[in-house]
What we know:
By secondary structure, the chain is mainly alpha-helical. It folds into two domains: 27-224 and 335-355, Citrate Synthase, domain 1, CATH 1.10.580.10; 230-326, CATH 1.10.230.10. 57% of the residues lie in helices and 4% in strands. The protein contains 16 helices and five strands. The protein has helices spanning 41-47, 50-59, 65-78, 83-89, 99-112, 122-147, 161-170, 176-189, 196-206, 211-222, 230-241, 247-256, 274-290, 293-310, 316-326, 334-355, and strands spanning 3-4, 27-30, 33-36, 39-40, 369-370. A three-stranded antiparallel β-sheet has the order 2-3-4. The protein has a two-stranded antiparallel ribbon with strand order 1-5. Strand 2 (27-30) and strand 3 form a beta hairpin. Helix 1 (41-47) packs antiparallel against helix 8 (176-189) and helix 11 packs across helix 15. The chain is globular and about 55 Å long. The two termini are 13 Å apart. It binds coenzyme A (COA). Coenzyme A (COA) is lined by residues 15, 226-227, 230, 260-267, 310, 312, 315-317.
Amino acid sequence: xxxxxxxxxGALDRGLEGVVACSTGISSIQDATLTYRGYTxxxxxxxxxxxxxxxLLWNDRRPTPEExxxxxxxLGVNMTLSPEFVKVLxxxxxxxxxxxxxxxxxxxxxxxxxxxxxxxxxxxxxxxAVRLTAKMTTLVTAFDRIRNGKDVVAPKTDKSxxxxxxxxxxxxxxxxELVKDFDTCLILHADHELNCSAFATRVTASSLSDxxxxxxxxxxxxxGPLHGGANEQVIKMLQDIGSIEACKTWIxxxxxxxxxVMGIGHRVYKxxxxxxxxxxxxxxxxxxxxxxxxxxxxxxMIDDIMREKKDLLPNVDFYSATVYYSMGIPxxxxxxxxxxxxxxxxxxxMLEQWKNNRIYRPRGKWxxxxxxxx
Length: 374
Ligand code: COA
């Protein structure tokens, strides 16, 4: 019998809870306050635009009007997917493929069409950051068009990312209020300190791998239901519950079965996620406008039950689900949209990592067998 090495109790924490893995100046969570580069998320949601937020995340300051106008133009122009690239995208299977899996592949393919993919100079990295951010949105909508046998819609290069999301998804002029609300959602999702996908980005980037590879790592991490995949699961849960009356019993059964209620709980926020508060208000307004106010009522009931029974609060994914649903966005695009926004944060993390890089190489505490003779 091989000897078992003793496992010390509490020597290693599962999930690195409370571990500070790097210094960062991009976004910060202090109790229930989230800031990007020193500005609260409430201020940014009310006063900024996604494009201005992207500049802020990448440059650690607000843009001048000229800088903002240049970034908007660059993003607009780079949203276009070349006919040659679209032709290749059409060969990638879409049926029975999760949109995040498709997005992962498509992002990887983007590198093959980027002449600067291997150029790690600062200037090239900044240009690639613009291209990746611009194209993540059009990749998401191209996926939906391609899987439905529709032509890919060319973005309007003088319009915002939020406008072009709906324009390239539906091929119709979107309502200004819808664009404004979606822009706010993009701001809310742009960065979030050292979350799982940002950490994945930084780990890959720390080996001095390239930008596209680091973004592919991040998309892979975001895909999971414990991270970005939760928003899609929330709407599925609401549809499965079916009615206001069924909420209480459904949640009680889920908790009895030790199932997780999606969109609830957070590793860091114990006194509430400020993004969820903003999205809750938006969800109330938008579900009412869509004539499906019962979805908001059901959400608030689940929110109350989880507070009371488990002392757990909603996170960003909980109310964003009904917000996106009310905007008419297909359910399985909820997580890809998260990527279309968060790509800006991932890139900020990459740029920060490379400014002061050292490869991530932690240790594993050995708990396996020792001294075996073969
Ligand atoms: N529903 C039910 N119980 C939950 C829960 C949820 N959503 N989230 C946490 N819990 C419970 C766990 O079962 C566990 O209970 P126990 O101690 O009795 O076993 C306890 O709370 C701690 O949960 P744990 O999974 O260890 O917390 P974590 O910090 O590792 O995970 C999340 C944080 C966000 C991954 C977790 O809350 C979760 O899985 N939520 C649902 C998925 C989600 O919404 N993800 C999006 C995050 S932005």
